[in-house]
Amino acid sequence: MMPTSNLQARKQISQRHTGSTRYAGACWAGLGLALLLTGAVLACRSTGAGPSMPASIEGQRLYVAHCAACHGATGRSDGPAAIALDVRPRDFRREPTRYISTLNGVPTQEDLEQTILSGRRFGAMPAHPHLTDSDVVILANYVREINRLGWVDRLIEQFEEEEEEYEAEQVEAISHRRVKPGEPIHVPYVPSGFQSDTATGRKLYIDRCASCHGTTGRGDGLDKPKDERGRAITVRDLTLGEFRGGIGREELFKRIRCGIPGTPMPAQEGMDNEEMWQLVYYVEFLAGRRW
Known about the structure:
The chain contains 12 helices and no strands. The chain is mainly alpha-helical. Helix 1 crosses helix 8. The protein starts with a helix and ends in a 5-residue tail after the last helix. About 10% of the residues have low confidence.
C-alpha cells in the first residue's frame, strides 16, 4: 500500500503541472487538423488526463507544428506519422538524446538546437532552417522539459516500486539534475604534423569498434547490440558514409569521444588526442574518403 506521504507528494507534483496536463488531447486535435490540411487522413482522439507536458504555450505551438506528428503528443514517439518511418522517433520521455557533446550523457543547449536546425541526415527528421533563433531556443527548452517530466514519472515509479517514501521537492530536484548537461568536450585541432596511419587507425578500430561495426565497417560484427530498452539496433554501415550524428571530422570526434547514449556504444575517454584523430581518419577511410 502506498504511504500517505507518497500520495500527498504525487498530488503536489500533479498540481504543479496540471495546467499543461490536459494539453495532450488538444495536441492531438491540432495535429489532426494540420495533417488533414495537407491531405492526410487521421483519426484523432483525446487522451484525457494523460502525462504532464511543459507549460510553455509558445513551446506547445512549436512542438505541435514541428515535432508531434512523429514524436507524439506527449513525446512518447507514438505520433501518427511514426508508423511510416524507417527510423523510430526518439521517445523524449524515456530515452536519452543520442548525439551529444558531453560525457555525462545529457545534451547541451547547443546540441538540441543544432539537432532542431539541421535535422538528422540519413534519418527521417527534417531540417528546420526557417525557424527563428528564438523559436529554436524555445523548442529546445520545451523538449528538455518533456524529458525532465519523463524523469519525474520514472522517479515516482522507482520510489513506489521500492516502497520508499518521497517528497515532491525531492523528485523535482532529482529530475532537474538528471537533465543538466555536463561541460561540452573540447574538440582539439588536428595536431601539427599529424600523419594519418591506416595501420594504427585499423588497430584502434579493431580493438574498440569492430565487435559491432565489423572488421570491414559494414555493420556486420559478431555482437548484436540492443538499446537501453532491449530493442535490437541496426548497426551503422560505416562504408556508406551515412552518419546521422553529422558529417565531418569534428562530429566524428564527438561521437567517438562521447559515445551514443542509450546504445552500447561507449564514450572513449581513455584515448589521447593523437589516437582519437587516427581513429577518426580511419573511419573516414572506411567511408571512402582518401587522402
